[in-house]
Design a protein that fits this description.
With about 210 residues, the protein is α/β, with parallel strands linked by helices. It has a single domain, classed as Rossmann fold, CATH 3.40.50. It is about 55% helix and about 15% strand. It contains eight helices and five strands; from the N terminus they run βαβααβααβααβα. It has a five-stranded parallel β-sheet with strand order 2-3-1-4-5, with helices on both faces. Helix 2 runs antiparallel to helix 3, helix 3 packs parallel to helix 5 and helix 4 crosses helix 7. The chain is globular. It binds ligand Z5A. Ligand Z5A binds next to helix 1, helix 4, helix 6 and helix 8.
Length: about 210
């Protein structure tokens, strides 16, 4: 049985997941919690190679099914070699994206069947689910604008606006389905306000 807690950060492009990861880590460490920070796709050498393939916009066209399977292949490695050992040690895992992203991007964005995603989720994860998910939500245009100032667009970021609108809707649907686990954080506010909401959400979880 896992002893640590599993927290995931989710949301569309440029909503501030990476920016707030370090803030959340510091906050947890102030509470004497040992934190392992990781990300998906990625987190192990093989999973990071799969990430490069997935994000490379100059690769051969990746079919939707291949994309879905590569994401779950990376996740299987990540769970076995990073997430489960950390939780078993009693560490907390703070992960930049996890399976809610698959429901949002491959389910919402690519229109893959939810039942197929759920089947793979059960196969790869068994009973493993995040204990808390912080879903950063902001209008698509704002997130893309922020992401644009940061770096060149990758294969996902080069999609059309309608794709990101579908991703956002699918994320919000996940939050409606799992309100106990998924806390929606308004990410279109100034950073200090976002972080005060985060402290509230994590503080409630810690209690
Ligand atoms: N993917 C998938 O399809 N299926 C899956 O199952 C999984 C992933 C797990 C890689 O993810 C891609 O993988 C992802 C979906 C796909 N698609 N894309 N693209 P990623 O997490 O590496 O990529 P990302 O979403 O593009 O991350 P990002 O652009 O780095 O976004 P972010 O981490 O949420 O934002 P940020 O880097 O923290 O912030 C962006 C900028 O905004 C930065 O300059 C900040 O200083 C600024 N910022 C942040 N917050 C604020 C506030 N509150 N005010 C003003 N400015 C702010």
């Amino acid at each position: 049985m896992p002893k640590g807690k599993f927290i995931t950060l989710e949301g569309g492009e440029g909503v501030g997941k990476t920016t707030n990861l370090a803030f959340i880590k510091d906050y947890l460490e102030q509470h004497k919690i040992t934190v392992v920070v990781t990300r998906e796709p990625g987190g192990t050498p093989l999973a990071e190679k799969l990430r490069q393939l997935l994000l490379d916009k100059n690769s051969e066209a990746i079919s939707d099914k291949a994309e879905l399977l590569l994401i779950f292949a990376a996740r299987a490695q990540h769970i076995k070699h990073v997430i489960e050992p950390a939780l078993a040690r009693g560490d907390w895992v703070l992960c930049d994206r996890f399976t809610d992203a698959t429901y949002a991007y491959q389910g919402g964005g690519r229109n893959m069947r939810v039942s197929t995603i759920t089947w793979l989720e059960n196969l790869v994860q068994g009973n493993l689910k995040p204990d808390l998910t912080l879903l950063f939500d902001a209008p698509v245009e704002l997130g893309l604008e922020r992401a644009r100032t940061r770096s060149a667009f990758d294969r996902f970021e080069s999609e059309k606006i309608s794709f990101f609108e579908q991703v956002r809707r699918a994320y919000l649907l996940q939050a409606e389905l799992y309100p106990e686990r998924i806390k929606v954080i308004k990410a279109n506010l100034p950073l200090l306000e976002v972080q005060s909401t985060l402290i509230h959400a994590i503080g409630t979880f810690l209690r």
